Amino acid sequence: MDGEGYPTEEELKYCETEQDMDRLVLFVMENWWHHEANKYVEGVLMLHTSGWSGNEDTIRALEKNKKFWEMLIGEKPGGHYYFEVEYHRWMRDVARMVEVGKHD
Prior knowledge:
Layout: H1 9-17, H2 21-31, E1 38-41, E2 44-48, H3 53-63, H4 66-69, E3 72-76, E4 80-84, H5 89-99
Antiparallel strand pairs: 1-2, 2-4, 3-4
């Protein structure tokens, strides 16, 4: 993220090209502005842009990643995206971040 919290060009390129979904999902969840706007519940990753252009830039980059975008199971107007994502090692990492307060 840059000094104002927006994704850098390198980070957006990473979202476009990364093929390891564990790494990519963890990266997105760690760097999503307004962490409360992303959740993982029962196999579904929910990303909500909250109208913030940095999140919208990230979504546009993720759309270019065919492997990631194939997991899309729905979207709603207003920047609400739903992805079917298996529970993998990234979820343990997110759980650990929350436990130690790094996620806030």
